[in-house]
Amino acid sequence: MNSLLFFIIIVPALEIYVFIKIGNVFGAVSTILLIISTAVIGVYFAKLEGLNTLKSGLKNVYDKKSPVYEILSGASIAFGATLLIIPGFITDVLGFLLIIPFTRIFLIKLIVKQNNIKKEKKDEVIEAEIIDDKKDEL
């Protein structure tokens, strides 16, 4: 709930603030052209990276390996492309970070590591022994 509230209220407010600041420096038309160009360039690179990831995933499938990284990478590329389509400079920066292979690898490892830490804490096992006081009675 808190993260949903963050994305609905805080992110657009920050984007508007950044639009105003950049618009004051470069002008309104330049700012709008910059937003459009980052979306077009970002989606183009997302397409290239997506095709590379698909090729790598198919290679792993043919080699009888699990394409787990490629699946996570493809999902992050799709999310990054979505962020690039949304107008705004903050979402564009996050989108480009998800599309660039080096930062994408770092972010995927960070997320997987966080999920493993949470999973290890949940999977606590308590060992016990059941002792039956009654003997077999026939």
Summary keywords:
5 helices; elongated; mainly alpha; 138 residues
Largest sheet: none
Distance, first to last CA = 61 Å
- Overall tally of structural domains: 1
Principal-axis shape equals elongated
Strand content: under 5%
Rounded Rg? 24 Å
Order of helices and strands: HHHHH
The total of helices stands at 5
The helicity comes to: over 70%
- The number of distinct β-strands equals 0
Low-confidence spans: none
Mean pLDDT across residues: 84
Class by alpha and beta content: mainly alpha
Model description:
With 138 residues, the protein is an all-alpha fold. The protein has one domain (2-119). Helix content is 80%, strand content 0%. The chain contains five helices and no strands. The protein has helices spanning 2-26, 28-62, 68-85, 89-99, 101-122. Helix 2 (28-62) runs antiparallel to helix 3, helix 2 runs parallel beside helix 4 (89-99) and helix 3 runs antiparallel to helix 4. It is elongated and about 90 Å long.
Short description:
The chain is an all-alpha fold and 138 residues long. It is elongated and about 90 Å long.
Task: Give the helices and strands, then pairings.
Blueprint: H1 2-26, H2 28-62, H3 68-85, H4 89-99, H5 101-122
Helix pairs in contact: 1-2, 2-3, 2-4, 3-4
